[in-house]
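Help!! Second protein's tokens look totally different from the first
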Amino acid sequence: MFFKDLAEYKSFDNLGDVTKEVDRVILEYNHHRYQWDLNKMAPVQYRGHLLAA
């Protein structure tokens, strides 16, 4: 999946809106997007799981 698939990038009026959208996509990607290769966990959850082991 690419950034352009996750972001709503066609409706920005200024750089502040772009920054907010980039932050939103990064948060969604790392905290809410579960991945089969990471034992069906989000990247942040998987990292915590590895550090606890």
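Here's the second one for comparison:
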Amino acid sequence: MKNQDYTTTIVVDQSPETAFNCIKDFRAWWSEELKGPTDQRNETFLYRYKDIHFCKIQLIEKLENKRLVYRVVENEFNLNFIEDKTEWVDTQLIFDIANEDGKTTVSFTHKGLTPEEECYDMCKEGWTQYIKTSLYNLITTGKGAPNPKDKEGFNDELVEKWELN
């Protein structure tokens, strides 16, 4: 059987422009604990979830109101059940936006996140919640449910380690 990248889809009444603007605002639907721009092509941002997950992500493709593609440049899982702590490196977060019959479809694919990956079940559950609930609500109501900022936050040592542009 062929590897199957994780994919999920939402359909909303809002315009492709509204969906596009919400997607690129990761702080409003994924996590408030980000450093750097999430909406500028070729720029990188840092994601942090407590002391469990860190990653550096770069926006590599931006087609206005149609597509956003992000590449995971660096990744570190601090979970004892995941042997490959860098599992997400060189995977892509792909958002395709289409409009048909007055409805906007947002398809999300984490290219490279397949059932063979150690974090697949946990990551699938997380992405499903973020896309189907938080991003959906942000697009339809203007309010997402991102992870709140952690009181520990980013420190200079962490930012330097990940060499934020």
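Reply: Different proteins will give different token patterns, so don't panic. The chain has one domain: 6-154.
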